[in-house]
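User: Second chain of the day. Same drill as before.
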Amino acid sequence: MKRLIIYFLFSFFVFSNAYAKNFNQTIQKYLENNKGNTEMVYAFNRCAAVFTYVATKLFNEPNQKERALNLVKLSSKSSELAAGIHSKYNKKTLNESLRMSESRMMELDKLYRQDGEEYFNKNGRFFSPVILDDLQYCTNEIVELINSGY
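Assistant: Same format as last time:
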């Protein structure tokens, strides 16, 4: 009986989701399985949120303000991209779509903050593997779009 309890506890800690409560899949993995305009709007809004979340953490760190400001710019660009797609395919004005994107980004940022706090409580760091993967993926994609003139 004692072995069974130890095995159960061990299995619980090993197989429980130690990375994220709200986001158990990276943006890249999500997009591999989900194609379309709605999915792109979601991905760009989520990119905006991860940039915002990481920027807020970096503003508190010494010598990281310039990097944080760059992430804020990338967040704005991500929201603009989401709004552009949303506006085009949902027959909304760009201003309506921008308001929707900003609102959705704030909701997603809140979820990143919750996941970051949970991960910090378990591991002593605010950036879980999902958050770091999303940050890397979004940075690469948004910078590439900016460099291509989009």
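Residues 1-19 have pLDDT under 50 and may be disordered.

User: Great, on to the next one.
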